Amino acid sequence: MSASRPWVTQVVLFLAGAVGGTLGDQIHVQFRVLSYPAPWLLGQAAWVPPLFGAAALVLVNGQRAFVPRSSTEPRPGAAQVARAVGLFYLAYLSTGLLQDSPRLLALVLCCWWAARVALAPSRDRVLSSLASAIGGCLFEGALSSTGAFAYRAPDVIGVPLWLGPLYLHVALMTRTIYLAAVERD
Fold first, then answer.
1. Dist CA 80 CA 89 (whole Å)
2. How much is the pTM?
3. pLDDT of residue 21
């Protein structure tokens, strides 16, 4: 993205998060993993796209706190970004398909994340993943406690056991997007 116009990058991230996150959330709506009390379109509330847009900004830009400034890691290309996004959506889909086995699903997502990290181990991958898992679960637990939406089978703090492991995969995707799209100083 343009180094002279970093705001364009942020707008694109917001829009991509709004569209991509809402489409991913459709997996949960269609598989009846969660529901909204006042659906607006296709079972989702009107506030879902802006929420996912804002989440994209927070999660991608939040990688700045973890990726070392001295990193010499090459900028990922479009194929690497597409692969990271595809792997995330595969993890997302698994939460719909395997939701009735939350412990197994959590284990599978954790093992798959560990294998992905083992291919290119780094402290920032692990720390950003843990921060994403903890922060994501706390945010969703707090939001669901307001009645804005509800998981069909929550386990802990109003969210399913497998949600934290899913957020581990979110962090690997957002890290790749950060390295590809956001200018590092």
1. 14
2. 0.94
3. 97
In a domain, 1, yes or no: no
pLDDT bucket at 182, cuts 50 / 70 / 90: confident
Domain count, the chain: 1
Residue 150 backbone dihedrals phi, psi, to 5 degrees: -145, 135
Structural domain that includes position 134: 6-181
> Is it the case that residue 87 has pLDDT exceeding 80?
yes
Which run of H or E residues covers position 163?
A: helix 163-181
Plot region of 43 (φ>0 → left; ψ -120 to 50 → alpha; else → beta): left
Long-range CB contact pairs, 182-185, < 8 A, 24+ = 182/1, 182/6, 182/9, 182/13, 182/60, 182/61, 182/63, 182/64, 183/1, 183/3, 183/6, 183/9, 184/64, 184/67, 184/69, 184/71, 185/69
Q: What is the DSSP secondary structure assignment for residue 62, as one 8-state letter?
A: G
